[in-house]
Amino acid sequence: MIKVIITGSNGLLGQSLLSLLLKETEKYQVIGFSKGKNRSGRVDFKYVAIDITNENLFKEKVLELHPNCIINTAAMTNVDACEKNKSDCDTLNVDVVASLIQVASQINAHVIHLSTDFIFDGKKGNYKETALPNPLSYYGLSKLKSEEILTKSKINYTILRTILVYGKVVDMSKSNLVLWVKEMLEKKQEITIVDDQFRAPTYAAELALACKIAMDKKATGIFNVSSNTVLSIYEIAQQIADVFSLDKTYIKPISTATLNQLASRPKRTGFDLSKTKKQLDFHPKSFREDLQIFKETFM
Ligand SMILES: NC(=O)c1ccc[n+]([C@@H]2O[C@H](COP(=O)([O-])OP(=O)(O)OC[C@H]3O[C@@H](n4cnc5c(N)ncnc54)[C@H](OP(=O)(O)O)[C@@H]3O)[C@@H](O)[C@H]2O)c1
Known about the structure:
Number of strands: 13
Shape: globular
Radius of gyration: 19 Å
Bound molecules: NADP nicotinamide-adenine-dinucleotide phosphate
Distance between the termini: 34 Å
């Protein structure tokens, strides 16, 4: 039996992990940590309402529960909010990871942590796990700092880097590209989408599967996890329209420069997925295939 704590269990990846792991209750004892009440709509796991930035309480709770594995999905993910509130961003995205390392070393727990393509500057794309990071935003920098304290630590850790995660869970605190494009096109509202940024979108259920594999295999090190398709965000929106049979003439291309966003975004990301395929035996699908599965599962 693996006892696993999922931080951020109310979130997109958190709830996707609950759905996956709670199918095997004979194998996993699942504990969810999130802020406020349990919003997953599930009662078949232990839920702890906790602000994980409360360092003493967080450490105390983890030590008391003594898990074999902790999957850290909680993060400040709004890139512009991180640029504005750097201290809050550091507290959740970096300091919590430092606390996790301290407690994990006391109980010999495996820590699985989520990172991002935003640690790169987006000049090259198709990044390997060993590529040189150069974040353009504070969010990217905070995630890079969290990676660095993990890689310097002596605990068993896995870092899963991912890109533009989408999916649907109960009572979501934020939307994502797929849900937003679908909703706007259903309302027949014109949307402007950048055609000069390139990403490989990641289905949350697939990312949850990669976390589960990493936990089962006790894999250590850094792994890339995304779909196998790099598209412009404009092309991503067009494929969403195709799969959901919506009118794509409402999607208008614009350039990043016209957006005036607070934080800079990398132009082209996407990952080299060979290490993940080989060592995790995780085989990413195309964006269109994942989107089709997403549609059949949730819509
Ligand atoms: N989403 C993406 O496109 C993307 C891309 C690359 C990497 N990632 C990484 O993937 C991971 C998962 O992302 P996600 O999209 O699943 O995030 P998410 O939906 O925002 O989920 C994070 C969860 O953590 C909870 N949380 C926030 N602060 C907390 C605190 N102080 N104490 C306890 N819980 C707290 C949030 O609570 P509330 O729901 O109450 O706010 C939320 O439920 C993150 O590490 C992120 O950096 C995401």
